[in-house]
Amino acid sequence: IELVLHIILNKPDIRVDKIVTQYSLKNIKGRSLRLDIYAVDSSDKKYNIEIQRSDRGAGAKRARYNSSLIDCDIVPSGVSVENLAETYVIFITENDVLGKNKPIYHIDRYIRESEEYFNDGSHIIYVNASYKDDTELGKLMHDFWCKNPDDMNFGVLADTTRYFKEDKEGLHIMCRAVEEMIDKEKDEIQVSNIQKLMKKQNMSFEEVCDLLDIEKEDYDTYREMLKERN
User: Which residue among 24, 55, 87, 176 has the highest number of C-beta atoms inside a 10 angstrom radius?
Assistant: First the structure.
């Protein structure tokens, strides 16, 4: 993550203190979120990195929503908003989502009348992973989609890839991760079925779960997933 941030932000002095994958942001009044990667650096800046293969999941409104929920999450009750940390929402997309044929896009608020930035500490960045050249960013994007570690440009990524593809312990972790992905996909399908039946048949959550023979021990999991969808 440090390597990714060093290159994307062109700031080689960033030191990451905390990383959480699949970080859940709860919204008691609306749709919750699960972030791919949430990181905090040594100066308390917050970073959300999303890896998106589908253009649909990387729209402008999604970026705005991620940014807003991160703000809500990092300002506890009783703390002045003037202490709000600087945040970065970074989408690394397989395709050129914004369609301007640029390798990277920086989105910041701007005062039109005075032609200067409105420095509120909120940043949104899109990285076009289809754009590969001899720059550090182009080489990084090459490595993101490269399957053979021997063909990678950056040692830390090559070593990590070898670990998960060739090392016995790494392979075990990878297999477990794949199993979890499959289980998650099954859960997503089940929640989709629950949602459709509740809407079309005007049935309660419990009635639908009973109809689908869902174990009661799974009720809380599916309830949470429904909340995130809504």
Answer: 87
